[in-house]
Amino acid sequence: MKHLPWLLLFLAAAGFAAAADSDSAAPATASKPAGWQLVWSDEFDRDGLPDPARWSYDVGGHGWGNRELQFYTDARAENARIENGRLIIEARREPWQEKNYTSARLVTKGHGDWLYGRFEIRAKLPQGVGTWPAIWMLPTTWDLGDGGWPDNGEIDIMEHVGYDPGVIHVSTHSQKYQWQKNTQRTATMNVPDAMSAFHIYALEWDGEEIRGYIDDRHYFTSRKDGGDWKSWPFFRPFHLVLNLAIGGAWGGVKGVDNSIFPQRMEIDYVRVYERPHAQP
Description:
The protein is mainly beta. It is built from two helices and 17 strands. The protein has helices at 5-13, 248-251; strands spanning 37-42, 56-57, 70-72, 80-83, 86-96, 99-103, 105-107, 117-124, 131-139, 154-159, 167-173, 185-190, 199-205, 209-214, 217-223, 238-246, 263-274. The longest helix has 9 residues, at 5-13.
């Protein structure tokens, strides 16, 4: 992207990398972070449905454990498509399978499953009360404890609820540290233009800790505390999840503003890096 020098200095002083704030902005170019090797990516450079070699869909309208209101559809362009070099995940107000909203939830499971790495997603978020976009990770195999959540872990790279605009959350969940007990490991950062500008939401994960970043600004660390899987289930492969929920136990705390639809989360790219010759 091209910006005037004084604007770059201003943004750097504010603690954020320069970000596009309109649909006319040029896509970011690939640049490898120091010490990391790119092993998987989607630059969304082909219009149409998301690449089936990289993405599958979680489908349904059962609330997803959070009393969410949307139905996640399967390979439906109205809810998930690539246009102008970006992945669009769009939530719409419309009747569908006994629900009043549709959206999409894309996963890399079976196409991209990683143990450790650096995960970068450049995104612009939706806005409006009732929206709940997330960029996160789930385990590929569920066989710890009771075989369910939270025993098998969850890593949230970015969560945002529309009634609290510009507040970005990062968290890890395990049996010992999770939101139902109010013991989750979490942090927030204020990003006032998260709904109008693109930012890079990144996570670095190794055998000892998980670190969260926005535009390379480090603001979260979850460390292995020496316990067993009950506190640290992050020793097995996880996959990425991109979704835009409506309502739910958190996103719907202040209801849903039906005047806002459609709303979209736009993803400029997804890139996954690993340390060269890193051993699990």
